[in-house]
Amino acid sequence: MKKTVIIIPARYSSTRLCGKLLIEVDSKPIIQWVWEAAKKSKLADEIIIATDSELIFNKAKDFGANVEMTSVEHKSGSDRICEVAKRHSEYDYILNMQGDEPQITPEVIDLAISTLTKNDCDISTLVRQITDIEQIQDPNCVKCVFDNDFNALYFSRCPIPYERNKGEANYYAHIGIYGYKRESLIKMTSLEQSDLEKAESLEQLRALKNGMKIKVAITKLNPIGIDTQRDLNRFKNIVEKK
To answer: Which family does it belong to (predicted)?
Structure first.
């Protein structure tokens, strides 16, 4: 029987909010919020936190997580999870779950996993429909277009499609959670960065450029990614209201 592991890449350094994964909200560090959501997944067999930081390693051990140290040289989360995945040949499916999205839900996690396991694809990921013009124009909000079979055609920081005819465009924002077939993760991380990836700073474009198939599923969840102090304050406010 094929098995699935969730690997949460947890880098300490962040250009906009250093050490953010260890910032506590309601007495729990951000990384613990994410790990607890992953633990509730019905489709994952194991959860591993992959980090380059002894601080994160020790904190994860404190709250009971399975955690492994990785190289400090990795340039992306995919490279980090691939290092760990290569140590564990027993897993056929690997889910890359962002360590800075504490609002992620187990239902959404399982949607990403089932989209991978039930389809002929290399990678699975999620999108949500957006109508807010500020989000559509925001380069930090990555947009995705896909075909009638929900295969991703392109990801961009620009508004895609370009709305030449008013009222005809539907916009979808990408949610940064990826499911990989084991061989697909190893293949993608071994490939050279493509010109598209370098231009947009989006590693999923490396996969598309090399003919890999990315299957998309639509969700209504709009999780807050903790990238800035403003994001952190928004999350704190949501937790306090609950």
So the answer is: Belongs to the KdsB family.
